[in-house]
Description:
The complex is a heterodimer. Chain A has helices at about 10-15, 20-40, 50-65, 105-115, 155-165, 180-185, 220-230, 275-290, 305-320, 340-350, 355-365, 370-395, 420-425, 430-435, 465-475; strands at about 45, 75-80, 115-120, 170-175, 190, 210-215, 260-265, 295, 400, 440-445, 455-460.
Amino acid sequence: MEIYELTAHQLHEKLKAGEVSAQEIVKGLYQRIEDVEDDVKAYITLTKERALEQAKKVDQQLADGEEIGALAGIPIALKDNMCTEGIKTTCASEILHNFKPPYNATVVEKLEEAETVLLGKTNLDEFAMGSSTENSAFFTTKNPWDLDKVPGGSSGGSAAAVAAGEAVLAIGSDTGGSIRQPASLCGVVGMKPTYGFVSRYGLIAFASSLDQIGPFSKDVSDCALALNYICGHDPRDSTSAEREVPDFTESLVDDASGMKIGVPKELMDEGIEAETREAVKKAIAKFEELGAVCEEVSLPHSEYALSAYYLIAPAEASSNLARYDGVRYGHRSPEGQGLLDMFTKTRSEGFGDEVKRRIMLGTYALSSGYYDDYYLKAQKVRTLIKEDFAKAFAEYDLLLSPTSPFTAFGVGEKTDSDDLLQMYISDLCTVPANLAGIPGISIPCGFDSQGLPIGLQLLGDYFAEEKLIQAAYTFEQNTDFHQQRTEI
Amino acid sequence: MKVMKIDETMVEKVAMLSRLELSSSEKEQMTEQLNDILEYADELNELETEDIEPTAHALPIKNVFREDKVGESLARKDALKNAPQKEAGSFKVPQIIETDE
């Protein structure tokens, strides 16, 4: 096996055994990037020199006989909406095309403490608004399983990088499915932890009550390792959960016996592509074979989740994105006549269509006279969605569904400006978890007739990540979907 | 004919509030698109929510206090590093107050 095909835990063993050096690993990854990046286009920025320095340090520790951490020397990719000191952080937007943050996001600090090696910053839909990376102001990332297809989004660059072997691990953010959906479309593992479990400090805000950082990996073991390092309370994020971080690798136990799994019928109806439904049904049968009890359950308000989400997220975005005014950082229009005109021109030049649309929608939903009808109504429906989950988790350990209603779609297939809902519907199965704040994981569970990966979503109650890890690990140990690699 | 939820005049007003400038073709398209989304969101009205409390946040976080301690803050020169224009240790912006000159 080539270095780029290995997982973090496999590379860690090799590092400890002296079979490979951290510098050889990082060079192996950059060689892979050189070979396939022209096709995949996962990265906006590469940080090679810095990465080689970081790897050198790990090799020095190994040479000195020091113990190294489980992620030391592991090459990772970071979605380009997390601040990296002195390294361009663009959000895939013209308005931040030249922004070099003066500080690191907490998650970046944690990954540095873990001595991971940062390979670069990955592509996304502008400000994480989208489901395909086609809203990136710079370029569209391609799905490594089929270069004519999208990788999903918004964390499409991170998902594609892991799937193509251009990173061992990657970090993304999930506001309505932006980790789980691209993980599903790219055939990798992607997890959104419970809201507040990973600090949002330094994550450029989209919708603050929904945004959550999480990992992409080639298998569940690596997902558990990444969570060990990125979760935890942060006084700099007032919404960060005060909660001990368990050792998630202790949940890597191959045992699903007695697990009670609910299957929400609303997420298995005709809105889901037939081949995806079939693959998920097989996964249910697999869980039953492994000793779990699977039963149909109802989340009666989940059909309203998309509507509620597409009011709440834009409302929060319209407020969060008010800060881009050309004063302190980013693009400033040279055309402005006076201050107000400068604001308006800067924003009109700097934001792409989807971002403008969401700012407009959010501003409208929050505006006087419409607030009660739209924003408040959506927040009330959010309560109903939350209560649905509370009822379900009173009876079940986990819920199971497809991650995405369909497999990877063609570049340009869902960008028709007359039918935006085509794209929005991608988030059908993932959005409810963001509204409720619960954790979810997507793992590979099959391939369609075109050879495109299908993802299985498992959802848990608040801070039930350990249960999710155990169930996902058990499924993985008894299937081989996660061992399939792209042919690129 | 379907009822428009939001017309071009309203789109103009919202654009002004959003500090966005839309060309006339953008305005037309935006009006259509916002109508589509709002029409879709109309399904929320099928639900009776009179007595339901709104959820602004998933976790039951109320107010978060910290100790009133002096900590480190960003150095001025670092805070100004990304400024499109700066002068005398400050961000520089176009003129705000009109003069008679």
